[in-house]
Amino acid sequence: MVDYTKEIQERAKRLLEDKKVDAVIGYRQGTVPMMNEPILVRETGKTDQLYWDSFCGVNLANYLTKRKERLAVVAKGCDSRNIIIHLQEGQIKREQLHIIGVPCLGMLDRRKVWAKLGDKEPLLVREEGDQLLVSGRGFEERLKKSDFLQDNCAICIHRNPVLYDELITDPVKEPQRTDRYEDVRTVEAMDSGARWEYFEKLIEPCIRCYACRNACPLCYCPTCFVDESRPQWVGKSLDPTDVRTFHYLRAFHCAGRCTDCGACERACPVGIKVRQFTKKLEKDVWELYQFEAGMVLEGRPPLDVFLPDDPEQFIK
Amino acid sequence: MIEKILSKKEFNDWLKELRKSFEMIGPKTQGEQIDFAPLAGDSAPELSFQNSRLSPKGFVQPASEKMFQFTVNPEDPEAHILKEILQETSSRLVVGIRPCDARAFNLVQLNFVNPDIQDPWWRQGRERLTLMGLGCSNPCSTCFCTSVGGGPFDGSGLDLLMFDLDQDYLIQACSENGEALLKAGPGKTSTEEDQKKAAQLKTKAEESIAAQVSTDHLKDQPLLGLFNAPFWDEVQFACINCGTCTYLCPTCWCFDIQDEVHGLEGIRMRNWDSCMYPLFTLHGSGHNPRGEKVQRVRQRFMHKLKYYVDKYENGVACVGCGRCVQFCPVNIDIRRVCQLMNDYKAN
Q: Which of A277, B112, B190, B233 has its CA 20 to 30 A from that of A175?
């Protein structure tokens, strides 16, 4: 097995030394277990800060928006798909970018590890093959990584970068397209009252910190609709109407663009399953247009164009 | 100040008794987390927790608080006249609050209740509360209270401080209010043996806090030197400018006042706001003095670790609860930033 961290460091160093890029965007090891921090490395001497493990869930496409310099960026499958969307939507230029592709085996969810450990606090978390070694005061546990994948990673079918300039290792085996929408269908099957209740309960803990929005590479509007003040479209309190408006509209803004990278859900400080909204839209776009966001650079996403054979009647 | 020893049964009975005089607030499981909430009926506080996800600051400064009401009905002679919405004043007992979160009220109070400003909403909210804190026998790895003037058994913000001695609670009075309550309550005077156990618990907890953050040079650092320090560029890179740190923080107090009108009736309210948001500082003219991310990130740390320090001479505006360290989605760690600020030497 290739040492991902070492590969990323070496490739970053070479790119900076050869002056192919002005900076490299990657991750550095976090200050707490199961967290890593996005960093921008400009100097060859600092490439040894770059790091990789199964907790690199932050989507780095989010850090490319409107940047002017020549950048190398570390990209998993989902990051690369969001880079494609960024390119299609004019947020960055292809010639500025050098994509260091990282075949991904799925990111792990620290909440699931916490839930498994209960009262025990993990102080040191290491990986060994398909195992996660977790230890803390007076305990040590060996967990099977595949049991702790982020929900979106557990159903991911595009682990390999779609667009890249170099890959740090051979592509990994892609899982077969499994049923990605079991949970969505459960919600679809509910009557409208039950569905309303389901969504009400889902967003009940929301504190409107906007971590979901801000962690999302798609949310780059110079002023988000919830931040418009002249006129103000959405109220600022925790009034359920306003909280709903935020979540529903944000999701609709992502329709046909969301890659299900899971950054929103990962960022939420109060554990809201934000993907329940975006997944329904992803399913609709798949069923209506057989389209997956960010898979090809050419062409336009379906909600960006009009075609006479559009399946929706209202638009004809 | 007196202290008493109560068996856990005596303690639970006492809480029931105290419900006659107080609305009970305590830690309660809500979804995946523990948060402070009113404890309805006879439901007991869940006291085996490390810390709540959200700080209990919302009981003094709610996320959304109605201040005034008004009508915009042109027929009404009182149209557009603001009328204060009277606040609840009934007493509340917060059981199980952590010493850091209680101490946060003391730090924030300097901003809301001082010789220049008397914020009636904040003051009334605070005056309703009696704080029965639970000392931290098992601090989190992200805790650094001992570096910022507090401690896992620091009673400075509390009325009463509980030590969990397995079978019993040793309860110390930390204020006159707390002393009066404790005197009237059950339990017996603690023995030397109890006190020894409590002292051991405290020492063990203090020693288990590994994180050491230095704040000793912050006051002497030249303000503009820190403001213009080059490290902000690195610190800010990962930040996504969400409000997680500010909303989870027990000492972040910023708010926004809004009017909302439905039909002919209006409410003036104040809501939590965050210096991380561009809208927080957007002027009516369209100018934004903190339009760039780096300015906003710098503001949050400078406010807590420099401006507050200089203005109130009361140490840093951080109690070391570690919530922002734990829940920042991109791992911006205030302990690291504080160290950068403290160690900074301008060229």
A: A277
Q: Is residue B218 part of a domain?
A: no
Q: How many CB atoms lie under 10 A from the CB of residue A269? A: 25
Residue B217 inside a domain? The answer is: no
Residue B216 lies in a domain: no
B13-43 residue pLDDT tens: 999 999 999 999 999 999 889 999 999 988 9
C-alpha span between A101 and A79 (Å, rounded): 9
> Is A190 part of the contact surface with chain B (CB cutoff 8 Å)?
no
Mean pLDDT of the region B67-94: 96
The verdict on B252 and B185 lying in the same domain is no
Choose the weakest-confidence range: A155-159, A226-230, B144-148: A226-230
The pLDDT value given to residue A1? 64
Same-domain pairing of B148 and B255: no
Q: Are B252 and B170 members of one domain?
A: no
Q: Please indicate, yes or no, whether residues B125 and B173 belong to a single structural domain of this protein.
A: yes
Domain assignment present for residue B192? The answer is: yes
CA dist A134 and A141 (Å) reads 5
Which chain A residues contact residue B259 at CB under 8 A? none
Residues of A in contact with B142 (CB under 8 A): 32
Shared domain for B123 and B242, answered yes or no, is no
Q: Name the token pair of A160.
A: 């390999």
Last residue in a domain, options B208, B240, B263: B208
Q: How are beta strands A131-136 and A124-128 bridged, if at all?
A: antiparallel
Rounded CA separation B307/B302 (Å): 6
How would DSSP label each residue in B263-300? Answer: TTEEEEEEEE--TTSGGGG--TTS--TT-SHHHHHHHH
Residues B281 and B194 grouped into a single domain: no
Closest CA of chain A from B57, distance in Å: 13
A118: left (phi over 0), alpha (psi -120 to 50) or beta: left
Residues of B in Cβ contact (< 8 Å) with A67 = none
Cβ distance A213 to B238 less than 8 Å, yes or no, reads: no
- Residue A300: CB atoms within 10 A of its CB come to 9
Chain B, nearest residue to A215 by Cα: B240
Task: Tokens for A101, please give them.
Answer: 């592709």
Domain residue limits at B284: 223-343
Q: Token pair for residue B212?
A: 């050491």
Among B176, B208, B240, where does a domain finish? B208
Q: What percent of chain A has pLDDT over 90?
A: 91
Per the CB < 8 A criterion, the answer to whether A9 and A48 are in contact is yes
Total domains present in chain B: 2
